[in-house]
What we know:
Layout: H1 2-10, H2 17-20, H3 39-43, H4 55-59
Amino acid sequence: MTDAIEHLRLQSEIIPDDLLAHTSPVGWEHIAFSGDFLWDRAAKATGRKPLNLSAKQRVA
């Protein structure tokens, strides 16, 4: 989430720190569409993923 916030701020987006206190960097890959908790997916350490930016956004 830090990378996304940094990217947005570099694009002159205003991201108030007081609102960030109410967010969570929790991943959701381990929760199925039905709401079931998928233990095998939760156990895998995936590390940080790159931001999903278009080629135009990566250049900016």
